[in-house]
């Protein structure tokens, strides 16, 4: 799987305001900004992203995914100088 493919899989199931994906083909890092995260704890946000990957996590197509998840408001606050 490529970074573009993984990005597409996540974006197809989770509306994202911002999505960065990088990795080596098995170990991935992502920054995900979505209004879907409003009111959710970090673990709930991660579970929502894992749900978009479905069997890809179970069959080891995506071995590991480290992620930072933000609401649009949280992301905007981080972008302030």
UniProtKB/TrEMBL annotation:
Database matches in SUPFAM superfamilies: BolA-like
Pfam families in alphabetical order: BolA
Domain of life: Bacteria
Signal peptide start-end: none
InterPro entries assigned: BolA (IPR002634), BolA-like_sf (IPR036065), BolA/IbaG_stress_morph_reg (IPR050961)
Family stated for the protein in its record: Belongs to the BolA/IbaG family.
Protein name: BolA family transcriptional regulator
Species annotation: Ramlibacter monticola
């Amino acid at each position: 799987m490529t970074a573009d493919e993984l990005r597409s899989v996540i974006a197809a199931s989770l509306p994202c305001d911002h999505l960065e994906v990088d990795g080596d083909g098995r170990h991935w890092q992502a920054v995900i900004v979505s209004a879907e995260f409003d009111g959710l704890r970090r673990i709930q946000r991660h579970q929502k992203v894992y749900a978009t990957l479905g069997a890809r996590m179970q069959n080891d197509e995506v071995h590991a995914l480290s992620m930072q998840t933000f609401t649009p408001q949280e992301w905007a606050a981080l972008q302030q100088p």
